[in-house]
Amino acid sequence: MFLDTYKKEWLLSRFGEAVKFDEPMSMHTSFRVGGPAKVFARPESFDDLLLLVSWIRENKIPYFVLGGGTNLLVKDKGVDAVLISLGDCLKKISIGETGKSRVIVNAGAGVETRSLCSFAIKNSLEGMNFALGIPGTIGGGIVMNAGTAIGSIAHVLHGVSILGQRGEVKTIPAKDIKSGYRGLTFLRGRIDSSVEKIIILAASFSLAPGNHAKIKDEAGMIIARRKKKQPTDLPSAGCFFKNPGPDTSAARIIDQAGLKGLKKGGAMVSPKHANFIININNASAADILALSKDVQDRVENRFNIKLVPEVIIVEE
């Protein structure tokens, strides 16, 4: 265990109420499940974030940067690490370079995706409506190259600012970033703080001036369609599995396997959207994992297709 009395006192003296110990992650994930994080930190400023990360790295303490907790499953045992939320320190949105056909919008990694979408609509900017209804934050959306059938983060990304392994801040232009399905890669590997120890600080997006009424009407239709097709009223992590291929929908093959409504404990495959696992009755992480394994096995046995989780599973 990394947290002795001295380290605990240091964290409290530097960050006060911005740090909590043995914090249930069920309070910070959209699944509403998950055991305690040894340390849960919400730095209140960029300087606080730099200080915390420097201290963590100096003491060789395991850590994980939390987005909105919307594409995450923390196991019931919890995690012996520092989980960092950027929602309090990196939450600004601003307009940068402006031209006749392009407007650059800057957003901190802690900005909620829906807030950026609303900002674009308010300022009559086209390009972000594809992300309407996608939960979570900009930082998490970049890590996963979040998207829908009508677009993804990579389509509008202009650049990414990161905190490197030696504490340096770098800006990576979009031309040096390779997009993939539910992931972005650059330089040596995937932008993933748990692997490369790189933290996404902010991103810039290339949007286009447009007609406010048209953008707003389109947004309304997208949101209505999403509510009709997805179980937005129950805890979930959105789509649980990646699509096996560009023309193969995970939801479709799970449905074809007759698995809608399948249950394990308090978890269920949504009758509304087969690629959603929903928490219907105080599910545990173990319930969700058992159900996802059952779905994987049944789909593989019937179609010889191995479904891969899109949801990040956090454990020791």
Walk me through what this model shows.
The protein has 316 residues and is an alpha+beta fold. It has 3 domains: 81 residues, Uridine Diphospho-n-acetylenolpyruvylglucosamine Reductase, domain 2 (2-Layer Sandwich); 134 residues, Uridine Diphospho-n-acetylenolpyruvylglucosamine Reductase, domain 3; 85 residues, Uridine Diphospho-n-acetylenolpyruvylglucosamine Reductase, domain 1. The chain is 29% helix and 29% strand. The protein has 9 helices and 21 strands. Strands 6, 7, 8, 11, 12 and 16 form a 6-stranded antiparallel beta sheet that branches. A hairpin with a 4-residue loop joins strand 6 and strand 7. The longest helix has 19 residues.
